[in-house]
Amino acid sequence: MVPETLxxxxxxxxxxxxxxxxxxxxVDIRDYQEILIDTRKSKASNSYFKLRKxxxxxxxxxxxxxxxxxxxxxVEGHRPLSLQKKYFDEYSEELSGLHSDWDKxxxxxxxxxxxxxxxxxxxxxxxxxxxxxxxxESGKEMDMGTRLNADPEExxxxxxxxxxxxxxxxRANRQLLINTMSKIGFVNYPTExxxxxxxxxxWAYHTNPPFAFFGSVE
Length: 218
Description:
Order of helices and strands: HEEEHEHHHEHHEEH
Strand order of the largest sheet: 2-4-5-7-6
Strand content: 5-15%
Structural class: alpha+beta
Largest sheet: 5 strands, mixed
Oligomer: single chain
Number of strands: 7
Helix content: 25-40%
Distance between the termini: 36 Å
Shape: globular
């Protein structure tokens, strides 16, 4: 079950937060040896390895708090709106097929737990969100309880960051990720243990600045 306190990316309280774009550029994170880059999203987008410059700076700062021998493995950063729409539509269709009794609003809300609707300026499309996990020096992923990008249906909600139905080792690894990313100002989307953002509306909702400073960027 979803916690009653969960605020979705599509919640009106999030969407009413103003955006004052600060013009921070997208940069190529492949230029930074401190961060490992996974290529599984390379066929879907040629910008998966890009993030806002200040987000990369924060990731580099966060690496200093990781134990020796553990590194960040980034799977996806910036995501064009066209690709975001494709992902949202595909997942909405999947949910419609699984739950014929759900109305359009229910489908929209449930889909929003896993993929941000494209019309709301999704975090990934701002360049301020990153999907990442923990890995050893060779790039082998650590046990996080589910695969990165596991959806609620396949994982029985074990993809939720604070899920109880995972092993003790996976829970410890998630806590390490939480501690490290939170320490330098990232905000997690609680239905996806791997999704962290900075500067977007969802980040602003949880950190209470007067506005977000990343809008959609192509």
